[in-house]
Amino acid sequence: TWDDLVSKFINEFFPPSRTTNLRNEISNFQQKLDESFHEAWERYKDLLRACPHHGFTELHQLDTFYNALNLADQDSLNAAAGGNLLEKSPQYALTIIENKSKVRTSQSKLIASPVNACDNHSSSELAKLTHAVNQQNSAVTTAMTAMLKQLQSNPPPAQVKSVEEICVTCGGAHPYYQCLTAGGNTFPEYRDNIQ
């Protein structure tokens, strides 16, 4: 039967270890740091084609790809979808991804050439600026180290909080034994005994 033929073909060309490795590559897919959206999408589709019997649903494939993207590309897809891309139907989400991939391909080719244009003059300027920044960084580090050593050898005096007496009878800014409300100095012989 057809199912037997498919099974024999898969077992011959896709042994279990290879299938496991390919499925892991699909599941662990991540957009590379310098990879454009289009390049990431093409690489992801190549992984899916390399393992036609991966068994992942369209929704699982979309979820894996979407969550592997950088935040800027996720935001771009959400904006194109008019909300969260993963809340849309798989077919609609795939259409958005394919359209974004086609648009970005033409734009990234236009943007790539000016970015890579760098002559000897600008690279020497960059080297000078880098050297100047490194010198300033060294000067600041030296100054901070000197200040730290000075603080460690001559610590600032400890802060001492003053104690202000407050009358417990009336709440005034005088000791209780001088309170006019209580008759003040009524018991001068006991005033030093109260702590």
Would you mind describing this structure in some detail?
It contains seven helices and no strands. The protein has 195 residues and is mainly alpha-helical. The protein has a domain at 2-116. It has helices at 2-13, 16-27, 37-50, 58-68, 71-81, 90-116, 120-153. The longest helix has 34 residues, at 120-153. Helix content is 62%, strand content 0%. One of its GO terms (molecular function) is RNA-directed DNA polymerase activity.
| Unreliable spans | 105-116
Q: Give the integer mean of the pLDDT values.
A: 78
- What is the rounded Rg? 37 Å
Order of helices and strands: HHHHHHH
Helix content: 55-70%
Query: Count the strands?
Result: 0
**What's the tally of helices?**
7
Biggest β-sheet description: none
- The helix-and-strand class reads mainly alpha
Strand content: under 5%
Q: Based on CA inertia axes, which overall geometry fits?
A: elongated
End-to-end span in angstroms?
102 Å
Protein name: Reverse transcriptase domain-containing protein
Keywords: Nucleotidyltransferase, RNA-directed DNA polymerase, Transferase
Organism: Tanacetum cinerariifolium (Dalmatian daisy)
GO molecular function, one term: RNA-directed DNA polymerase activity
